[in-house]
């Protein structure tokens, strides 16, 4: 959740407002001035969209969890793990992990955001490889996917030793 400050500004006057930010995690800080009514309207629409996204993802996750349990195919299991990683990432990045619970569990801490991105990529690539059966159907595509998986694993190992901001930059570039 972005910080909000209620300011009492005189209409038509020039006012300087200073804001100092210190943070160890990544974050977005768009600065906008809103009238109270416009702000409430905008936030309510944003929260409906974010809630629909997260709710849809959780519904898809629940359905595919049942499919994975009944079918027991490797690609379905990888898809469920991909969806879990994506849901944790979205809940952390959009700060819904804090809003859903009284306190922030360690899994929703932004210092682990880069690991959540890595896990989402890892399970997504394994799912694609199993679902498309690239081992037997397309050796060239299989090589590309294996190279991407190796890159993700290398990034994971590097992230264990790099400072947070460097690891995030590396992941964004990767």
TrEMBL record:
<protein>
    <submittedName>
        <fullName>7TM diverse intracellular signalling</fullName>
    </submittedName>
</protein>
<feature type="transmembrane region" description="Helical">
    <location>
        <begin position="48"/>
        <end position="69"/>
    </location>
</feature>
<feature type="domain" description="7TM-DISM receptor extracellular">
    <location>
        <begin position="48"/>
        <end position="172"/>
    </location>
</feature>
<feature type="transmembrane region" description="Helical">
    <location>
        <begin position="76"/>
        <end position="92"/>
    </location>
</feature>
<feature type="transmembrane region" description="Helical">
    <location>
        <begin position="112"/>
        <end position="132"/>
    </location>
</feature>
<dbReference type="InterPro" id="IPR011623">
    <property type="entry name" value="7TMR_DISM_rcpt_extracell_dom1"/>
</dbReference>
<keyword id="KW-1133">Transmembrane helix</keyword>
<keyword id="KW-0812">Transmembrane</keyword>
<feature type="transmembrane region" description="Helical">
    <location>
        <begin position="144"/>
        <end position="164"/>
    </location>
</feature>
<dbReference type="Pfam" id="PF07695">
    <property type="entry name" value="7TMR-DISM_7TM"/>
</dbReference>
<keyword id="KW-0472">Membrane</keyword>
């Amino acid at each position: 959740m972005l910080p909000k400050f209620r300011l009492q500004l005189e209409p038509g006057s020039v006012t300087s407002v200073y804001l100092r930010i210190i943070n160890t995690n990544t974050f977005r800080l768009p600065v906008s001035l809103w009238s109270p009514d416009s702000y409430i309207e905008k936030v309510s629409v944003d929260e409906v969209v974010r809630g629909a996204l997260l709710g849809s993802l959780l519904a898809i996750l629940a359905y595919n969890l049942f499919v994975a349990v009944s079918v027991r195919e490797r690609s379905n299991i990888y898809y469920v793990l991909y969806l879990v990683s994506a849901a944790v990432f979205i809940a952390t990045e959009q700060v819904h992990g804090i809003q859903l619970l009284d306190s922030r569990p360690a899994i929703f801490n932004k210092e682990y955001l880069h690991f959540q991105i890595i896990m989402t990529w890892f399970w997504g690539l394994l799912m694609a490889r199993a679902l498309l059966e690239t081992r037997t159907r397309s050796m060239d595509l299989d090589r590309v996917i294996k190279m991407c998986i190796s890159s993700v694993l290398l990034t994971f190992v590097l992230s264990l030793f790099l400072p947070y901001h460097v690891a995030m930059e590396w992941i964004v570039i990767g």
